[in-house]
Amino acid sequence: MSEKITFSECELIINQSEIPQINIFENKQSDSYELDGVYYQVDCEIIKNNIFWIYAKYGKPKPYTDEVLNIETQENYKNSRSPNEAELKNQLFCIYIYDKATLYVSDFRKNSFLKDYLKAKYNKEFDIKKYFIDPKEFVDTISSVESIKFTSGDKDLFNGAIFDDIGDVYGLGRPINFTLEAKIQNKLFEREKFINFLNRFKFKKENCEISRVICIGKDDEGFEKIFNLETLMKKIQVNVEKDKNGMYDAEYVKRSLLEQLNV
């Protein structure tokens, strides 16, 4: 049965602002790496002199149990795996295309590992940034605004001392985060002003002044549209199949992704 792997489109930079040249990477490189108790086997390859492919299998030796359950017989057996062994049953696929200055990652949650590994391997400061859909694209799809919600750890963002009072009344100390939700009564809006508004808060999100921005709007047919800086990333999908053990064929994923990207 065919499944989909979703790749997030990101920006890969070194030394805060430079676009990595392909020649800083190594071709046909395989090695092992450990980060925070997770063990990785990494394979890298340069393709067509302008594409860098990274494939990693990873897992943890613990949690570990002395016995395993046979799901057919419902009997317990001694675990043949030792506590010093890890099943590398998780997979990460990445591809960097120099001509587009773009990195595609199958699981953005592993960006910390990816940055750490690349830094250790190539002795450069790497950073990975998500490409968000532009607020203009969201505004173009809606005809009304229902609500806007912000979450921040900075009380000064909302210009009020009421948040200090909350902690004082209950004797719990200053809250960690504050959430403000604005319900919009007059749901019509001025398009350019609203685009500028979302861009300002996108900037605040990128600079860690706020942790979350969600805007709910509706289109002409009344269908709800949600602008969420946590989820609105540019993404592409490839259709792949897992083998009998539930693993993807890395070579097939690579070929399918290259075909999807037309490179």
Structural commentary:
The chain has 263 residues and is of the alpha+beta class. Helices cover 21% and strands 37% of the residues. The protein has helices at 111-122, 135-139, 162-170, 191-206, 250-261; strands spanning 2-14, 29-35, 38-47, 51-59, 67-70, 75-78, 90-97, 102-105, 126-130, 144-152, 178-183, 212-218, 224-228, 235-241. Strands 1, 2, 3, 4, 7, 8, 9 and 14 form an eight-stranded antiparallel sheet that branches. A four-stranded antiparallel sheet has the order 11-10-12-13, covered by helices on one side. Strands 5-6 form a two-stranded antiparallel sheet. The longest helix is centred in the last third of the chain and has 16 residues, at 191-206. The chain is globular. The protein starts with a strand and ends with a helix.
How big is the Rg?
23 Å
Number of strands: 14
Low-confidence stretches: none
Task: Tell me the β content.
Answer: 35-45%
Mean pLDDT: 84
Q: For the report, how would you describe the main beta sheet?
A: 8 strands, antiparallel
Q: What oligomeric arrangement do these chains adopt? A: single chain
Question: What proportion of the residues is helical, as a percent range?
Answer: 10-25%
Question: What structural class do the secondary elements suggest?
Answer: alpha+beta
Q: Quickly count the helices.
A: 5
Give the termini separation.
26 Å
Shape assignment: globular
Q: Spell out the helices and strands N to C.
A: EEEEEEEEHEHEHEHEEEH
Short description:
It contains 5 helices and 14 strands. Helices cover 21% and strands 37% of the residues. The protein is an alpha+beta fold.
